[in-house]
């Protein structure tokens, strides 16, 4: 497959469309996570459709002191990877092409959800992100746009924007892609030294610890519900026969239904231990939130939730998350 490289909106609009168009928006420095998105887009568009990958390092979503100038720009390699993954075209416009009048005077606001977690750490980031996503949706006019679940808050805000402003596009989420050791793929991983990368693994390990605690709690509760009420609770728990039952039974007995506090505590323990590593992990936030608005969930929460973490290792800031389901919905 020959992948066309387009740099202007005129070139993009001149393409003859057949079937569905699926778009994958990136800032370049493509890796296997992006390739997974492109392959998913190819499957969605079908053989008669079209897959367009956008590559644009958006200055509006970088704050003071962030890595705009050093953000990796690898267009030749990106074009090759995109083509191998199934892209028909790569749209890589210049800043002047996207913002022909300079920085736009009219921008989208991410609202209260955009001021939490990543928004609190990076003021204005989500306003800039939504502004460029809206522009690229208008420029590419896709039937579907695919985004990774690794950027969970970004995904939630894009979905909200599309719903609130009546964009006629389907937003498709694709699960996070990880290295074999669990580290979530990111273009910023290339900044990490070997020592920093070892410390960075703490992010995924903390999430996995929270997930494992949650899974154990849910399994214990499910088993306990199956045991006749005439049995003592201790008998119900011991009947499971799992090696972790003794430790988890205490958490189940003391945590509120669904156990968000225990999940946070399990993840926090791993992150606290990382403070003593060399180099240390500098935690930005650990949160267990409702994906509808990214507010912290309460003790009686049921349904889908996101366990999210952000931290710095050396000069590199990394984020990661895992979806969890609490209560009856699980």
Report the end-to-end length measured between terminal Cα atoms: 43 Å
| Portion of residues within helices | 25-40%
* Main β-sheet, spatial strand arrangement: 1-4-3-2-5-6
Low-confidence sequence ranges: 251-258
- Helix/strand/pairing class, anyone? alpha/beta
Radius of gyration: 22 Å
Shape: globular
Biggest sheet record:
6 strands, parallel
Helical run tally: 11
Mean pLDDT: 90
Which percent range describes the beta-strand content? 15-25%
Order of helices and strands: EHEHEHEHHHEHEHHHHEEE
Count of DSSP strands: 9
Structure description:
- There is one protein chain.
- The protein is α/β, with parallel strands linked by helices.
- The chain is 40% helix and 18% strand.
- The chain has a 6-stranded parallel sheet with strand order 1-4-3-2-5-6, with helices on both faces.
- β8 (303-313) and β9 (316-326) form a beta hairpin.
- The chain is globular.
- The relative contact order is 0.12.
- Residues 251-258 have low confidence and may be disordered.
- This is Pantothenate synthetase.
In short:
The protein starts with a strand and ends with a strand. By secondary structure, it is α/β, with parallel strands linked by helices. Helix 8 (194-226) packs antiparallel against helix 11.
